[in-house]
Amino acid sequence: TNIYKTLNQEEKFVNSNIKGFIQFNLAYWHEIEHQYDHCNSKYKQIITEQPDYIDAYLRLAYLARKRGDFNRCIYWINEASKSKLKAPVNQHCLKGKLLLDNGFIGEASDEFKFVIEKIVRDDSYSFLGLANISFKNAVDMKDNTNGEQDRLLVK
Question: Are the CB atoms for 27 and 53 separated by under 8 Å?
């Protein structure tokens, strides 16, 4: 009977994951078809039924970003961090990219550094994010230097 119980529990777990996978793909199809109300409700349904389904949170964050709702986007990313799963890389990279796009360079850098230092030492996307930050800083410094030189020449 122990084997039966174990198999029954595993079957429920597999069926739950398959159901979540099917719902996620259906929600994504609605998203591709620009049926945003449907996909939002499907992603939220997935989260209600499977609170650790990180990709559903990240899709909601992406949709909020697409609408230009920065605060809602950060909300969904932070909700994903409450998952029992340990610090998913995608969550931190998406948050870093969003912060960088909105001019929060220090916070973006912290997200990418967190991935490299605490999760995956050789994550390419995080390295690329940090490289983009360094490049942006270098360009900004160059622009500031040129601007000051131009002002000095005018006087």
Answer: no
